[in-house]
UniProtKB/TrEMBL annotation:
Transferase as UniProt keyword: yes
SUPFAM superfamilies per UniProt: S-adenosyl-L-methionine-dependent methyltransferases
Domain of life: Bacteria
InterPro entries assigned: Methyltransf_25 (IPR041698), SAM-dependent_MTases_sf (IPR029063)
Stretches of the chain forming a coiled coil according to its record: none
Pfam family membership, one: Methyltransf_25
Signal peptide: none
Domain Methyltransferase: residue ranges: 47-147
Protein name: Methyltransferase type 11
Keywords: Methyltransferase, Transferase
GO biological-process terms attached to the record: methylation
GO MF entry, a single one: methyltransferase activity
Length: 252
């Protein structure tokens, strides 16, 4: 069977998402998963993750005792997150709230969150300055006065692309082999993912999505327009702490 999905609102993609992120993301840079717990220790809670997906970043924070909220516009992703929570302890479950909604206009309480996270490439799915500015303005609305926004600012123009399928993960112990390819299309980065069954090579699933780069100068202009400003790095963090993880921090 060969399936193709253009959006994240696909239950099969949600079921395979953890495997994909584990192999592409955590496998390449384990330290990035240490970043958010460290920030939670410093900035506190409640914590909101925009585009939380299946809870890969969120659940470890809940396990540490932080009250967390996950927002995602994919019912499939949230359904899989709910399945994970059913297996978690009552203490973890009571720390987690998840809401289906759009991060451009999040249906959430104002002046509530101490830490708001845009991990991985969530913000780069927004394809217009109008969307980005509205999202940032609403993010500011959700923050308490001394709250902090952490936003991944990976530089897509530095991303290596390859038009042929390239195997990035998979061995005989895994159910799937994982291939990726990517290319620039009209100023956006189109990334494709293909999973091929180890037991049946005829069974494969492919998915694609687009990311929209934002020049750094334009990003800083939008941040300022939204009423946000760069947040100073706390004294108990290394001077290059955010940069190491391709993150930026902002506050009111």
């Amino acid at each position: 069977m060969n399936t193709h999905a253009y959006t994240y609102n696909n239950l099969l993609f949600a079921e395979l998402y953890d495997f994909i992120i584990e192999k592409i993301g955590r496998g390449n840079n384990m330290k990035v998963w240490e970043f958010f717990p460290r920030c939670a220790e410093i900035f506190g809670s409640p914590i909101l993750e925009m585009g939380c997906g299946t809870g890969i970043n969120l659940l470890p924070l809940a396990e540490m005792g932080y009250p967390v909220t996950g927002l995602d516009n994919s019912s499939a992703m949230l359904k899989f997150l709910e399945q994970k929570l059913q297996k978690a302890s009552p203490e973890v479950r009571q720390n987690v709230e998840f809401v289906e909604g759009d991060m451009v206009n999040p249906p959430l309480k104002s002046n509530y969150f101490r830490l708001i996270i845009f991990a991985q490439s969530q913000f780069l799915h927004l394809h217009s300055d109008e969307q980005r500015l509205t999202c940032l303005q609403n993010t500011r609305r959700l923050l308490v006065e001394d709250g902090v926004v952490l936003l991944c600012n990976g530089k897509l123009e530095q991303e290596e692309t390859w038009e042929q399928w390239r195997e990035v993960a998979g061995n005989q112990r895994d159910e799937w082999r994982l291939f990726t390819r990517s290319s620039w299309q009209n100023g956006s980065l189109e990334e494709e993912i293909k999973l091929q069954s180890n037991s049946d090579p005829q069974q494969e699933h492919s998915f694609n999505y687009r990311l929209y780069p934002i020049p750094n100068e334009r990003m800083l202009q939008l941040i300022k327009q939204a009423g946000l400003r760069p947040a100073p790095i706390p004294a108990n963090l290394p001077a290059n702490f955010y940069e190491r993880f391709k993150m930026s921090a902002f506050t009111k």
